[in-house]
Amino acid sequence: MVVSSSEEQYQKYKTDRYIQAGIQQLSQLIAAKSIFAQQIGLAEMAQQLKGIFEAAGATVIVDERYRAPFVIAEFSSPKPDAKTLIFYQHYDTVPADSDQVWTKGAPFTLTEDAGYLYGRGVDDDKGHITARLTAVQRYMAEQGSLPVNIIFIMEGAEESASLDLGAYLSDYRERLSGADLLIWEQGRRNSKGQLEITGGNKGIVTFDLSVQSADTDIHSSFGGVIESASWYLLEAIQSMRDAQGRILIGGIAEAVQPASERELELVRQYAPTDQNDLAELHGLTLDRLATDRDDFLRRLYFEPSLSIQGLSTGYLGQGVKTILPSQATAKMEMRLVPGLTPEFVMHKIEEHLTSQGFNQIRVNMTLGEEAYRSDMSAPAIQKVIKLASAFYEEGISVLPTSPGTGPMHLVYEVLEVPMASFGLGNANSRDHAGDENIAIADYVTHIELVEELIASYV
């Protein structure tokens, strides 16, 4: 395989009829909102995918028993001993509301500009669906049949902790078990231009903390003698983490499954990001929490972290309102690593708050997913690594896990299949933000890499 330039890939994008047909499908998918958090368009999107995959020759099941229909699309090989590849995808996206700025077209319109495509879901995850489907269609058109069975499984609640995915997978376990490899929803080229190939992700538990200190707000002249909900909640949160970002909740650190030396070596060798990269990318102005690269990598990939998503208390309108707020709430999250389950963490948080004297805090878990990571040694993953190396001039980056979160643990627990993640995103694809984007050259290269992976099963 000869590495193609961005210009060469763009010409293929403009002239290849299969790629252009896939782009038309992508445009239609992005235009159709499918947002689990707002319960918008999920059933409609599942039916739209059914039509697209059936037109491509797949046998399709749409299971609508839960809030987000589960879609299975199967392409069968005529080989009696054919192995099976699974693509795990999701068709839901996060919202694109007025709190986000889009400068490259409207969020639900696929927009091309200077070699990039923009739109909500273009990277996370609808662009991956159409690129991988295009690879399957092109291979079948050029070779006549597939050397491997290919199954797309597509859920509609990934952005909301994959609610009900476990029930769907359990029901289809026999149909999906025994696969050679499961390719995860997405991936990216990192800031060095390397294709990241990862084998896991962090888990997460999100929860609300709330307190009510009085029946009504109280005049702030009593601030020296009456505790307010605001101060009480802030002090409770402060007790859970030190100034360097270390979690102070008893039992959490002891339960963490330490990274192996092989896993540490992989991130030392391949992890592209350091504190300086983050400072430049995000315009950071506060002090960093990690002191050196090893500490940074260990925390980013292998340790839990506690974050405040949002705080709400008191008066935030125009001018002044001198009160002691009677109510305060915080939306919190902890990113999890192997050894920590959402239920265990919530139990330890409640224990901690009680032991520190914050027994008035109400704790409500809102979602949770466990972590998963692989050592990347499975033969099918090694095959992907070898194939991908030929497609990217800057090379590849092999990581046992990513700092992000997804239902990898859930999928592995049910299907017990080797999993690897790689995709068509870039270091600034801006997933979940305004101007979500992919490079057209990366889209085309991903199609070619997936075709090469299919061909490797001949």
UniProtKB/TrEMBL annotation:
Peptidase M20 dimerisation domain boundaries: 200-356
UniProt cross-references to SUPFAM superfamilies, sorted A to Z: Zn-dependent exopeptidases (SSF53187)
A Pfam family assignment: Peptidase_M20
Keywords for this protein: Hydrolase, Metal-binding, Protease
Gene3D superfamilies to which the protein is assigned, alphabetical: 3.30.70.360, Zn peptidases
InterPro entries from the UniProt entry: Cyt/Met_Dipeptidase, Peptidase_M20, Peptidase_M20_dimer
Organism of origin: Streptococcus caprae
Protein name per its UniProtKB record: M20/M25/M40 family metallo-hydrolase
